């Protein structure tokens, strides 16, 4: 079982947003709260069950990121992946 932490880059494994990249904002017992800086902002994160999320990359400092920073981080990571 994977350990989920705020600031980790994650990919959605299920749902209408399958394969979309997010950053984990918060974690509780059953759910993670995901942000992408566009539709899912820091004010309105997406609530998703842990089993529907795959951890992709290490942890970033969420205190230093705003919505624009999150968009840039995800965009830069997607470029590196290709």
* Beta-strand residue percentage: 25-35%
Please give the radius of gyration in angstroms: 11 Å
Estimate the helix proportion, in percent.
10-25%
The biggest beta sheet is recorded as: 5 strands, antiparallel
What is the CATH level 1 assignment?
Mainly Beta
Number of domains: 1
Q: Report the mean per-residue pLDDT as an integer.
A: 91
Instruction: Specify the CATH architecture.
Output: Roll
The structure class reads: alpha+beta
How many E strands? Answer: 5
Topology order in helix (H) and strand (E) letters:
EEEEEH
Distance between the termini: 27 Å
Under CATH, the topology can be stated as SH3 type barrels
- Low-confidence parts, pLDDT < 50 over ≥5 residues? none
GO cellular component, one term: ribonucleoprotein complex
Protein name: RNA-binding protein
Keywords: Ribonucleoprotein, Ribosomal protein
